[in-house]
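Q: Given only this backbone (371 positions), what sequence would you predict?
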């Protein structure tokens, strides 16, 4: 309904309200779907299920540019939202048909204060990041909001660790297989959210290609996501999680940074190939992370751990576009426009160094319980 409201909005204010409702509803869907899977899947089956879990998050940012470009070029912008209506109705029918009714009722009190604290802290960070994209004049205000959000996280941590019935239990962070997804995995999600956007804007702004043509190349990220899927389980079972993650993260880092070298005269197959390789690396890395992250968390504690993971993942995805926009904007003060974008690709590649180091120091049998 919110997507329909977006398409039919008579004013910008109504559009903003509809988008807010759409974001609120969307934020409930991903953790709920993952929780249904986690509560019914033993640790040794998480690898198989992770393949299905990763697809939606990878597919959407990859195919959105080409679909959006098609709608803008041949139809109207309203179709960007109208396309969600039949998809939403289909999802409702599938949910009614396949999802079992939950007869259990929780007796725990809802931690409203914890919810409010998290909403404020994440709101400060995301709003600050968005304001920072408007230009250097807004950076002091944006920096202050982000700083307040980060300080608020300390308040959230103290509250969750001391209240009797917290919104979610943070003790799952003591488990290394869970913790590395919340730290190094967050860096990966920043890149996952930023790369399709950066490549699309780069091809349009610097190469002066149409949105539709740019979308054709970005969709190869999605093709890479899908193309590697039949082999992910074989790769992981053959060389285990640690080696698989290192290969995947190195692949993402190198292929992303290599996009800085493309030019309007570069053969299209090279641009498509780099996007494809990046998609393969992203897909393999996220499959590994999703399979491992809950493998050592008891089933009865996965609800709480899933909430924590979803909050961090959602923030990382939202920050990805804002972060790379600010980076490119800052670089444009010192470099020509094309070089600013090129350094932006290198920056996204460098982001992978932290998760690479984090995985490298893990024991050789890391994630063995999920095989």
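A: Predicted residues:
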């Amino acid at each position: 309904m919110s997507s329909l409201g977006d398409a039919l909005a008579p004013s910008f204010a109504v559009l903003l309200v509809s988008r807010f409702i759409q974001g609120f509803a969307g934020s409930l869907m991903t953790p709920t779907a993952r929780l249904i899977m986690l509560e019914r899947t033993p640790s040794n089956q998480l690898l198989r299920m992770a393949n299905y879990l990763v697809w939606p998050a990878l597919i959407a940012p990859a195919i959105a540019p080409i679909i959006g470009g098609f709608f803008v070029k041949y139809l109207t912008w309203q179709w960007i939202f109208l396309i969600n209506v039949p998809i939403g109705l289909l999802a409702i029918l599938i949910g009614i048909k396949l999802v079992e009714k939950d007869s259990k009722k929780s007796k725990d009190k809802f931690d409203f204060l914890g919810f409010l604290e998290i909403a404020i802290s994440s709101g400060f960070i995301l709003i600050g990041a968005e304001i920072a994209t408007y230009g250097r004049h807004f950076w002091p205000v944006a920096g202050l909001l982000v700083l307040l959000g980060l300080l608020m996280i300390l308040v959230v941590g103290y509250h969750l660790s001391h209240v009797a019935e917290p919104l979610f239990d943070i003790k799952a962070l003591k488990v290394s297989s869970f913790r590395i997804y919340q730290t190094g995995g967050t860096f990966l999600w920043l890149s996952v959210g930023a790369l399709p956007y950066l490549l699309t804007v780069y091809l349009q702004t610097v190469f002066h290609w149409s949105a539709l043509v740019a979308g054709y190349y970005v969709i190869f990220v999605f093709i890479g996501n899908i193309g590697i899927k039949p082999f992910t389980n074989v790769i992981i079972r053959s060389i285990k999680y640690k080696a698989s993650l290192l290969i995947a993260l190195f692949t993402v880092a190198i292929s992303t940074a290599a996009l800085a070298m493309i030019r309007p005269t570069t053969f299209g197959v090279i641009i498509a190939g780099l996007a494809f390789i990046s998609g393969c690396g992203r897909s393999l890395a996220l499959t590994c992370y999703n399979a491992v992250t809950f493998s050592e968390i008891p089933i009865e504690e996965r609800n709480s751990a899933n909430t924590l993971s979803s909050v961090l993942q959602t923030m990382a995805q939202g920050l990805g576009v804002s972060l790379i926009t600010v980076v490119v904007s800052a670089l444009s003060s010192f470099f020509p426009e094309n070089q600013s974008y090129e350094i932006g690709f290198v920056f996204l590649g460098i982001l992978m160094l932290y998760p690479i180091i984090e995985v490298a120091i893990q024991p050789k049998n890391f994630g063995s319980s999920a095989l």
